[in-house]
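quick one before i forget lol
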Amino acid sequence: MKSFVSLSLAALAAVAAAVPVEHGPGRFGPHGGPGSSRYSSSASASAVAASTTAAAATSAAAVAASSSVAVSSVAVSSVAASSVAVSSVAVSSATAVAAVASSTGTPTVYLAGDSTMAKGGGGTGTEGWGVFLPYSLTGVKVVNDAKAGTSARSYTNESRFQDIADVVTAGDWVIIEFGHNDGGSLSTTDNLRTDCYGAGSETCTSVNGDIVQTYPTYITAAAKLMTAKGAQVIISPPTPDNPCETGTCSYTAPRFTAYANSSVAAVGSMATFIDHGQYVGNAFEALGPTTVDAFYPNDHTHPSPTGSTIVAAQFVLALLCSNNPLAAHVVNTTSSITGSCV
């Protein structure tokens, strides 16, 4: 059975805009990380209350003095207009933690991705969705080692995957999501990010003479580094570029969706495919172009904090729709995750 909370996407966007987030210093390895992140308690309480009134829904939540969010259960509701009704059962977060907590201590979720996941996003006015993921998880630590401007190739060659593999332990998770910087040509210039085009084990020689692998080769090798240590891996295709920029919302999956799925098959049972792009595409189509266009202040790739909050919520929805045990650590934090399983 899967667990969901349902509210209007518009109300979720209102919460994201109203709740300020503070960030502490980075704390993971030579490449940085998110450090500590927390909601402002008073702002969170008022924002959630306002959104709940707007959506004519109720939720029981308390924001503790430490700014952690504790929710005893998540419930099912049906919503109209921009949300899709889903059915489920309530889940006790305490039971979820007990079911999955590592016997050697608190498990860690490592994030490996580009600017759409990273702290700071793509610059002023934007934020990566990985910054908001910790608010939806309990009983785990989240280390955001996403790095702006990276691809599966450059993340590999800069030893960033290896850095994670060096510290990951059995019972941990690694979420891998690339694709925005993996395209391009290798014949006229080499930006050190472009992968060899192909769905298998093809190789290319760049203009610089470097042997370049395909996206599936880099991702599969990285995932196997993690599973060899006993960690579970979640592999996702990239988040969508603004699917509504033409005035009509329409999401088409990029080739990296199939590549990510094939990498999961190559890794085996310790890997899970989550189609993050499709979930976000569906949510943005429900919201419509006027709302979604406002999520992209600088370009069509990097969402604002408000937009990235919804992007993070859709990852959580996809996680709940999956069979990955990390779903048992999900706790409702903003009163809603809207949508249906893909």
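fyi The radius of gyration is 19 Å.
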